[in-house]
Queue: 4 jobs
Job 1
Amino acid sequence: MRWTRILLKETTGLTGLAVHPNPRPALISLYQKTLSELSDIPETALYRQSISAITSHRLRIVELTEDVSKIEHEIAAGQMEELIQQAQDELGLLEKVKGWKPWEALEVPEPEKQWQYTFSENKGSR
């Protein structure tokens, strides 16, 4: 099945995104690396919980499905090459998030009522 895909798919149709010769193993590797790297982030962090859930779900699909077109359909987030690009981007973001440490307390407390908004209606004439 993989060989017919390679013979049939000459382009992704997306400028700058070449056809990957063997996308399934590449995607599995990226998802596994993402899950491994998440271990450096506290389990209580919302970012870790969200990315872990999405990545685990996608990894399960890719591991259980051989047919690339079925993987693309099941994940419903683009072609395999796009999924690879998304996974690479997430790994890059993950490294930045580790440095930012958004799960830690703020150095300076937020001002009182920072997240409360009041809206007043303009009762003037138009």
Job 2
Amino acid sequence: MLRYIELDGKVPKHDFKTFSTDHKNYDDAGVILTKDIIVVDFDDDPDKGLYYSKIGELIYNDYPTLKVHTRRGFHLWYKKPNVDHIKTPFRNYTDKLTVSGAKVDYKTGTNSQATIKKGGKLRRMDNEHYLEDINSLPELPLLLHPSKLKHDLYGLDDGDGRNSAMYTHLLSTLEQYQLDDQTLYNLAKFIDENVFAKPLGEKELRNTINSVKSKKPSQLKPKYLDPKDIIMTSEVLVEKLDIHYFRGKVFFKKENHFISDNNLLLRAIDELIKLKPSQHKQLLDLFTIKAHLQDDDDFPIQFNNGYVLYDNEIVEVDPGFTPYYLNVEYDEKAYDKDVDEFLNWFTCDRKDLRLFIEDILGHILMTKGFPHRAFFFWGESGDNGKSTIIKMMQSFVGDLYTSVPLDKFDDDTTVYSLLGKILNVADDINASYLEKSSNFKTIASGDPVMIRPIYSPATTLNSKATLVFTCNEIPVFKDKSGGVKKRIRVIPCDARVKKRDKDIDEKLSTENAKSYLLNLAIIGMNRILKSGDLTECEVVNSITRKYFVESDSVISFLEEHNIDGVIQPAAYRKYVAYCEENGLKSVGNSEFGRRVNNEGYDRKQVRVDGKRRWTYVKN
């Protein structure tokens, strides 16, 4: 029986636990999908000259199924294939290249829906009878299987590199799906006639196909583990252990997820083949060129019970390769009293601060589209829960955290440890004066930064790690630009322990505690997605503001003096006098003007005593 969920525009009005078995109860409705159903969405974009629905129509004619018409195209409903050897998993994708050469969106899994009703009217459908017997849907045809490539094939014309694109696409598909010669030819013919703007023609097409087939591994020479042929052995191990190479790190599949640990990798290899120590080193070197290369930065977070956080949604799919394995069970009903009571105590029962802490957990889960804040947990005395909350976060993310100190952010080798992590925690950092902060701003914002593994070439990092620091005194940044100010949020640790619980760390790190923290993180993540930032918290805003006032003599001066309408030289003289009176170091006139401008002042010319003078004017 189908389950329908009420929609608000394109998104569900509520969670997937609330549904109806009759769409008549909703004006706007979608069908809640299952892990066995995959919906392929063809959209046209006339402004860009993209008409993927024409390709979809051809496929539909050969493989008819439930077809739901949309404003920009249509959805085709199929049964998900059960193919174990597929390296590119079936999951939710946006703008994903298919074997056919068309780009589509995929929807699948129990936390996904496909719209069938808008404004009280069912969308136009073909083969509507499949809705009555959803289990009889035909299997997804090969042409609509996902490709591991990202290139564009649609509309390629003479001089656009059609031969190269066709060769790369066919070779990749051959490796992914082990096509026979006839299927390979049929695919090439389909792309040439229906996807390219101008066909290659039969002769060029045959030459391209023959080039692809010449690269096809010979079936007469099976590969096997052989200590005397370390290159062939490396290729066999790459397939057996599903080895991937990502930004200078080698990952392999252990049980149901990927890890990067050379010692464990060599132990796994040792169970398959006995080699000399020198051969182990050879293998590790070979894996950097033989392993499946991962050059993307956008990966889902995998949980330990089959669920995945993909595009900020919880879905039940095979994630394929991802460096982010969170060893936590997703259970939407999980609740933990110890975690709840600790968070209430830590926040001194301030509701907005409690929500802000939950939002930090959500920030940790977000690997894209997050506000890019850095969090300083500040408390001048002990017994305030500062270390406890940090240990709780570390336990929650497990192997997905690292600890790069703030003063090491300009060390490209140390920063390399951020790769594949979603949290960086530096505990009890020194209250130092930081001369440099460019890398801090770049890493906090998720922009690319150069990193260098030891004894290896440099590579780039788009950090996904939320930056968390604890301190008794907050470091002072020399850079007073808005870049640093925009990133930092200071969280007070002002609770006081009245009765010590020596088991609190263990209580906050149980499996149930972590599942509850995951639920809080998902709730916090959804708040961030809705508002675009973390929850407004009065005490966080106040203390963060106080920090910048105390660490910046210009801001401190503006807190006590109104320079609206004051002539520039006079304003600067007042500022210098203020610094001398309060034992602060003043900045130069130009820097003073820049910082004043950052605080919301403009310059305006006015006439004073018959002369035109520049004055500061508050925005």
Job 3
Amino acid sequence: MNLNIIKSSFFILLLGVTTSTMAKTPKHVILFMIDGLHWQAPEKVNMPNFKALIGQGTYIEKSYVLLPHHPTVGDYSKYNSCSFPNPVLHSGTVFIKPENKLLQESLPANLTTAFVVNTAAYRSVARGFDISIMDGKLTDDQVVDNAINIFDQQQPAFMRVHLQSPGELGRSVNSATPDQAFYEDVFGKGSPYVAGIENADKLLGKFVRHLKESGKWEDTVLIATSDHGQSNIGWHPLFDEDSWATPMVFAGKGIAKQRTLPYFEHTDLAATISMLLGAEAPSNNGGSGRVVKEILAKNEAKNFNHPQYIKTINEQNKLFSMYKAELLLASDDNLHYAIILASLENTILTPEPFYHQDRITEWHKAGTTEHMIAANDLILEQMKTALGK
């Protein structure tokens, strides 16, 4: 009899722990992405719904993404159909390899996942989603309507909703002529980009309202951000720092309210989303992001400190390209500079060449992000010395 009492007590205790754990874990994490969202858009454009989430959650004014480069030639393009930030986001590492497991593949099999977007460009990161709609004929409004239907019917644990139009409209600003008021100014009068962002914000509000009206908001974490930033002149040119940063807000179950973090990088999203869902991160290598627990109300953020790897890597790549261009121009008058350039990419003369964007599929050879940054710094110092800087 005593043994039965002990067993019953243990079962009740175990049930209590399990129930407590489940209660703390959101049932749904929604990654709501507004393509090409400029980090200043919430202040410069009418975005009441995004701002409302800022008041209800944890905000990062500038979340850094890896250089939004989108090569369609070379090794990277063999396995990736979209720009660098997307495989980095879904795999949670800057060491991009074909065999990397993606976030949606690493979640437990009993958790449903979904992806809705109005372009086929993201097909390489759609691998492993249970439900995937990638249709370039859809409007942003139709993307959200589809997402709401899927959410109601399938109750996905993780869903990425991506509105592509704002980014495309930003690119159209870059094609504007000088007689147009928004020429080289995405925030200029009559800018189609502004119209696209404001519509995306309305759709964000529609999605959030549906979650609340259907009683799902209390069990959901919503993350609103983008996969890259936006240049003031339109699109996301490689070395424009506005292309590297985009705003981000976390809101919902367990998220700290009215909190601001000074830094975040999209490499951290996969690990942080996995943490929210009580799952293992898709990657655990030297290039992986970290779990940012400071978004949670139960954790303090006063000692938050981030190594800022992505920002540093981007700055290094920009400097390398600038120095390389200077050396190339100088070599027209003095072939000594041409020899320096050649030696920088010869592993006999330079055992560890610079890890630049065109070598991204080889970055894993560095072993760790810290080592890659240190190795890059050595090359940059050599180039500076050669240029007399």
Job 4
Amino acid sequence: GSMNEGLVSARLGLVGIPNAAEDAMIARDLMLAELTGGRLHLQHVSTRMGVAMIRDAKARGVSVTAEGTPHHFTLTDEACEEYRTEAKVNPPLRRPEDRAAVIEGIGDGTLDVIATDHAPHHYDEKEQAFEDAPFGLVGLETALGLVVTQLVEKKVLTLAQMVERMSCAPARAFSLPGGTLRRGSIADVTVFDPEREWTVDRNRFLSKSRNTPFHGMTLRGASILTIVDGHVRWRRDDA
């Protein structure tokens, strides 16, 4: 399949990917993690049942962490109308009820991490027929604005919880030394203005790729300064 199975895929005449394809794998992996006592991380969760199963597994004490992405809590499969390959991602954008479940899961901590699922592709690759175009979108340059606009502004997360989901929790999940401002830790820091409004313009992306479904969208929350290993690597021109 190449997009979510549903009314939109039927209307477009495209082979769909059912929720069950993802749900079955989540159920299997949760069962194995519970059986073995192993540690499990689930990427890019996109279905209502998937979020519910992870929530239940955590309540039973299963050692599992999981992710949600900005595109899965912002868009639905209607973004694929007119065969828009910029919205072709894997797992696919799903129904409104699935989007709502991802938002709820991030809000209550079932989904510990917000991940960009950054997948740049050349313009020519995305200009193919929908079935042939690769999955993926540019996620890095819109992630912060989408989280602030869709989750912080709508009171799903506080700013502190946003930082937790995007920085602290990912570091803990993978036992990485970053994700903290404690003295002696790695100085990888993003300074941002949560009030700043901006319009997504793919032609101004610093990434070499432009494959975004968010072109023209007005967002709130913008990066001002990026520090990597203690060195300023990027500063917003109009800061």
